[in-house]
Amino acid sequence: MNILVVEDDRDIRELVCMSLAQNDFHTIACRDVQEAKQSLIEHSPDCLVVDWMLPDGSGIELIRWMRRKNRFQQIPVLMLTARAQEADMITGLDSGADDYLTKPMSLRELNARVKALLRRPAVYQEINDTIELEPIKLNSLTHEVFVGATLVNLSKTEFKLLKLLMENAKKVFSRAQILDAVWGVNAYLGDRTVDVHILRLRKALKPHGADGMIATVRGAGYRISPLKD
User: Fold this and answer.
1) What is the pTM of this model?
2) What is the C-alpha to C-alpha distance for residues 91 and 79, in angstroms, rounded to an integer?
3) Domain total in the chain
4) What distance in Å separates the CA atoms of residue 51 and residue 8, rounded to the nearest whole number?
5) Which of 18, 56, 98, 181 is within CB 3.0–4.6 Å of 76 for a Cys-Cys bond?
6) Is the distance from CB of 100 to CB of 92 less than 8 angstroms?
7) CATH number of the domain residue 185 falls in
8) Whose CA is closest to 49, among 88, 76, 70?
9) What is the pLDDT of residues 53-79, one digit of tens each?
10) Does 92 lie in the same domain as 172?
């Protein structure tokens, strides 16, 4: 597995690369956004570890650029940054990062999180099927979501989350159940991750009047119901 490490601090970059290499990963080291973009094109890595503050921009800008490119949309990204505020974490996840780890970090945890990210694609099985919950239609084969006749752009994680809820309409899922189903049972993530992605999913559905379908059940979790119920 190839891991692209984007970090401008040489000591941290070398430490992270050394630790990942000791866990049988092949690492590609970059110090700024432009180097990272070039490495993405040349190497198509399996996962990225990205710092926030970089000499020629930010990790946030790099991730947003990736998510606009079909070729790189599905590559998991772990943000590794000294910015530890909840608002920063939400910004990072909203920008397209799949996980968020603050410095100083445990190298064992870093490796565990990278491994968890790399396991995620195997958890999700695509099937040739269409799920309909008025007015939303989800196609697992084409990875498309429509509200009425309008295509809704969702990230891979948002799609998986919506699919889970739609396949189990009206059923209440706890945050822990959602984490296990969408991110995998060994993912090192907190409940707040679910809340952030629910917020992002509602935001994507809101212009189409379908955000109200996803209900928060106080003390229990989340569920989805058809608008015409």
Assistant:
1) 0.54
2) 11
3) 2
4) 8
5) 98
6) yes
7) 1.10.10.10
8) 76
9) 999 989 999 999 988 887 788 889 999
10) no
